[in-house]
Amino acid sequence: MHIEVAVHDGVSSTVRGSLLEQLVEEFLEAQNYEVFTQIRKIGSELDIVCRHKVNRKEIYVECKAYRETLSAVELRKLLGTIEFEHYEEGWLISTGPLGKDAKGWQNDWENRPTRESQKLSIYTPERIIGSLIASKVIKPFPNIIALDIVKDENLLGEGMLLVTEAGTYWVMSCLSGGVPSGVLVFSSKTGLLIEDSPLLKNLSKTDNSLSTLDFEYYLKFNEQTSVSNDISGLRKVIEVQIGDTWSDYRPSKPEHFVGRMDAQTNIMRFLDTVISKESNTRIFAIRGDSGMGKSSLIAKIRSKVKNKMYRKKFFIYAVDVRAATGGTYIHWSLLSCFRKAASHGFGYTNSDDIRISNATSPLESDSIQLFLSELEKKEEVVCLVFDQFEELYSKPDLFDVFDVAKRLFLDTAALKSNFVLGFAWKNDSTVQQDNSAYFFWQSLADHRREIYLAPFNHTDVSAAITIFEKELGEKIHPDLRRQLIENSQGYPWLLKKLCIHVYDQVRSGVSQIELINKALDVKSLFDRDLQNLTQAENTCLKIIAETAPADWYEILESSGQEILRNLLDKRLVVRSGDRVNLYWDIFKEYVLTQTIPFIPLTYLPSSPSIQKMLQVALYLDHDQIYNYTYLGNVTKASEKTVGNIIRDLIMFGAAKGSQSQVLLDQSVPSSSPIDILRRLRHVFKRHALTIELSKNKQDAYITLQDIITILKQINPAAQHNENTWKVYAERMLHWLLATGYVVENDNDWIFKDKGDVVITSFRKVLRRVTKNAFLSASSPAKTLEAFQWLNKNQPQSRLDIKIAGYRNAIMILRSLKLVKNEKKLFTTIFERNSPDEDLLKLLWQSINEDRSIQNVLRFMQNNPYATGSDIGRFINQEYKKNWTTSSEQRNGNVLRKWGIWLLEGSKSDNIINPISKSDKEKFSNLQIRIDII
User: Fold this and answer.
1) What is the pLDDT of residues 347-363, one digit of tens each?
2) Residues 784 and 926 in one domain
């Protein structure tokens, strides 16, 4: 028996405080006391000093209208206040139950000598009610009337005194199938049954703990007496299901489960500590992101406790909360758990005797208390696990289920019996801080054992692929195995999706070799799931996703049996009792938003160098298909090397192909080095290595060992020796240099996003040794003009170039590897009509790499007054050119123009265009200004 002070939602806390004050005054009146001083009044708490009406004795009183159990800490704090403030005596008036430790403290305190124990009096709900009845403030609980109504005492639960703005009432729960389903309401002043429907509805809308039950139960009970024997709720409890086959998207069968040995061991050890009383908590939480295998782990440990070692110690019952339609689902789950445990020999074996008679605190029910006592005697543990628990706060109509579960969790934590609660909680679910689930999670932080599921390591992934091989009936090709390991990135859901895709493809006749040359993209796999649907099936799928967990019968009515059956057969939806959901949370989000969880890329390229990759890429075309043999011949690379390069290009979305044939992907404008590198830069932006480096400050120094450490962290499933990790780290640094994310600095590197690909860094990476470009043969303006002309009019013969007046300029461009000569026809390394700004930038960066111009720049910086003749004389002596004086002047003047152009570009973010109208004048003025200097 307990007391509750209940108000309507939205009512201020002062109303609850006033109701508590009214109850306390009635109690004090029964003891012949009156309120003398009110010290504090806050919602569910009231601190006062009362005075006896006859002897004037003053007593300090703390009143608490808590729903949760009161701990011994509160009692000790009150005793400390009494002693510190020198009160003669103190009382605790509590409308809620005492916790296990508080009951022990109370028993110890009240057994002390009277002189000491009278310092503090503890008034529990039973004592308060007894005093109010004795003083005739309220009528005794109407047990006889209630029994006369239901005819069977086994159908009566426990009662409570409900204090509301509408008055004070006796409320008794009535059982249906062993759990509370409705209530009988009586006036506490008259003891008569309340049959007023508006009043009953009003009481049901207060925040009392029985509000999820039917307050008009008596009216319906009169119409249909068979409702009292209804046990259909037990059949609505859905246990965590497992897949029928390996390829089933439901939680894996125990024999298919791999890894998570630490998690399994932690849970089993935790259950052992419950028996040995070494643990103070009775709650554990399995946490992890979507698709980490939480449900599969639950199914595994449920199976594990059935083996010879554990079957007489532990019983685990796991339910899917997605099947919940109301608060009674929690009670039905609890009852089903205890009854099934009893039927397996746990506690006492008469399972039908177990009933939930206390709707507010089910574990305080008499039959359950007896069952828990037997568990402790026999050193047994019963565990109830709620899977998919985050579903309870995802939909408003399930909030009442959440509230019932919350009370059960808190009671379990306080009781510390041999009953354990577990739940699987999706780590990446969105919980707003004003959501009650957030506060619930925080309130249990100190009362739960957490088991966190991280991505698979290499051993776990390999074990999963080995099981996959058995299902496939053939060994996985080493390259395909490596691809599965790398692409899954340790995510169990992604590994399973990829393996099922490979399984389906191989079964349809596609060879493993063909699959090696295709990017395994989960988005495209989800698209394939959707492409096979009819319009009606697609509409039904979206409705389920939008309302998930959706009502089975509503979907059946709106979409039809055939459509729903088709989706079930295609394994895109799963049924849990009267609820239906998509087969994966991740797939559900994709159906709703067309997005998948952000998964940083961890792919490690196999190309021997960027230079070789760009050489191969240069020959790719959007329309013309090339095979590996041809690409190997024209680039002087082995077919295996070409295969590795093409695989990298496919993984980075720059190419597509199959059966040793490849095309340039349409998303890449051309096969030019800049376009290829820009595609790589776009992809590297979401590479896990880049993301980790970006967490450092810009311009932060990084070492090769830093890169190795990060690569190991982001590739937990990969297993390489130290030398291989070093090779990968060096390769990744080169790629980051070329894509503009790091810059080289002596013996280390600096993380600095340049905003675009950096040809300068790229050429350093290639260790390119360039011959002197004979820059004196043509000016910057003429050379750029020739570059742009050839790009727009390629290919051109040597004679055409000579007639156009660009022979010397093209010679410079060839020496810089910006123009190539094939079959006596000259072309640029770019696709025709590439943007002029790209040509300008590449020319400027390439010239910067020329050794002779570097000498010119140093000379000009050391000799700011140097003339063209001075520069020509310096180069003539440096390179032993044997130029005449006039040649020194002519060549020196041209080299000076190159030097001025490069020096000005290095001082500004914008490169001067020597042939544009605006920049040409600026360029001329620069020459004049330097001449004057």
Assistant:
1) 986 778 899 999 888 99
2) yes
